[in-house]
Amino acid sequence: MMLGLSLSLTNTALLNHGVHRPAPPVLITQAIQNRCRITCKINGKASVLEPYALYKALDETFLNAVVVYSEKKSLRKFQITKFAVAALSEMVVTNDNFFANWAFDVSSINPEKIIAAIELVAYS
After folding, report:
1. C-alpha dist (Å) from residue 3 to 6, 76
2. Does some domain include residue 1?
3. Which CA distances in Å does 108 have to 34, 84, 105, 120?
4. Tally of structural domains, the chain
5. 7 partner at 20 to 30 Å CA-CA among 19, 69, 85, 107?
6. Which residues lie below 8 Å from residue 4, measured CB to CB, with a gap of 6+?
7. Does the CA dihedral 71-30-54-88 come out positive or negative?
8. Does residue 15 fall inside a structural domain?
9. How many percent of the chain have pLDDT more than 90?
C-alpha cells in the first residue's frame, strides 16, 4: 500500500513566480511623469490619488497628492494632501490621466529633496 502526500502553494506573494513589483517610489515617479492617477489603500481604506510631488524629508519619503476618491471621507474641494509613502499600500498606477491644477505650488518643497514633481506648462 502506497500513501501519497501532495502540497500545493497558491499564495503568489509567497511563490513570487519571478515577478518583482516596483517599489512604491518607482510607481509614484512613473505616475507623476505620465500624469496618471494612483489607486491605493490609505490606512486600509480605498483611495484614488492624483500625485503631484514625491520628495524626501526627515529620512522619510512623502507624496503630495489630491484625493479624488476616498472610502474614508467625502471630498469637497481641490486640496493637496501630504502622505507618508509608507502609509500607502496596494498601490496601482492606472491608465486614467489627469490635468494638473495650477493651484499646486512646488516652491514650498526644498528643490534638493524632490524626487519627482508635476511640471506645469503655460499655454499661450
Report:
1. 10, 64
2. no
3. 22, 17, 6, 15
4. 1
5. 19
6. none
7. positive
8. no
9. 44
